[in-house]
Structure formats: C-alpha cells, structure tokens
Amino acid sequence: MDSSQLSIFSLETLKNHKTSTGVSVNQFLKQKHPNGDWVVNKDEIGYYVKVAHLTMKYRWKIVGEVIEAINGRAVQLTPDLHPNKVNIDAKREKVQLMIYDFVRNTFGEIESMEESIKKASVKFNLTEKEVEAIYLSREV
C-alpha cells in the first residue's frame, strides 16, 4: 500500500473510530461542526473548522499503521489514540506480568498462596486484594 492509499485507509479508519462519547469520530465532528472539513496531508489527518476568525483543528498523525492523536482537541475526542496511553498500557501490562510471575514463583517455592500474595503486596506496594485480583486475572 503506498502512502496515499494508507492515508485514505487511515482516514476511513479514523472516521469510524469510536470517540470517548461512544459515537464515531466523523458523526461527532459533523454534528458539532457541520461546516468542518477533513484534510489529509502525507502522514497527518485533520478536521478543520472555521469559527469566527479562528480555525479549530483536530489533528492525528499516521505512524506506520497506527493513528495517534497529536493535539489537545484530538486527544480529548479520542483519548485511546494518545501515544502516552499506549505506553502506559504497555507498562501496566508488564508490571501485572511481573506480579503474576512473582506470586506464581513464590507459591511454587512451598509457600502458601496467602504468603505469596502478602509478599507481592509488600514488594509492589499494592494491597493484597489488588495483587490477588491481578493474579487471578492472569490465571487461565
């Protein structure tokens, strides 16, 4: 897929993406700003609307095959597309796996599950209930 095809594909993907309000991005923006226009420039997608003498901009960037919100309006509308959220989610996943592995390994060392959870809560500065919930969410 060349860059123009990717931009068009990304635009359609973004238009259909669900916003924080539960409706599609396109539906939300067309209802709120019916006179706005979608603009695609290389690796950037924007929705621009003239209000008095100002242009309001909602801007997203295409990074590989991922769309990222790059300004405040876009982040507010699509917080799940903010690049920091992706990083935070990845870190959260890593920490949860570390907690699960810690409990599993200490439990495997002939300790009771309660002792393993208690040690994990101290090590990771969480309550025992939080550790137990993380462990159980990973246990298949």
What is the average of the pLDDT values?
Answer: 85
Structural classification: alpha+beta
Q: Give the overall shape, derived from the CA principal axes.
A: elongated
**Percent in helix:** 55-70%
Q: Which strand order spans the largest sheet, edge to edge or round the barrel? A: 1-2-3-4
Strand count, sense and barrel status of the largest sheet are: 4 strands, antiparallel
Rg over CA atoms, rounded to whole Å, is: 22 Å
Helical run tally: 6
- Report the uncertain regions: none
Q: What is the N-to-C succession of helices and strands?
A: HHEEEEHHHH
Please report the total strand number as a whole number.
4
Give the termini distance in whole angstroms. Answer: 39 Å
Beta-strand proportion: 15-25%
Describe the structure in your own words:
By secondary structure, this protein is an alpha+beta fold. The chain contains six helices and four strands. A four-stranded antiparallel beta sheet has the order 1-2-3-4. A hairpin with a 2-residue loop joins strand 3 and strand 4. The longest helix has 26 residues. The two termini are 39 Å apart. The mean pLDDT is 85.
Protein topology:
Blueprint: H1 3-16, H2 25-32, E1 37-41, E2 44-51, E3 54-63, E4 66-69, H3 72-77, H4 83-108, H5 113-124, H6 128-138
Antiparallel strand pairs: 1-2, 2-3, 3-4
Summarize the structure.
This protein is α+β, with helices and mostly antiparallel strands and 140 residues long. Helices cover 55% and strands 19% of the residues.
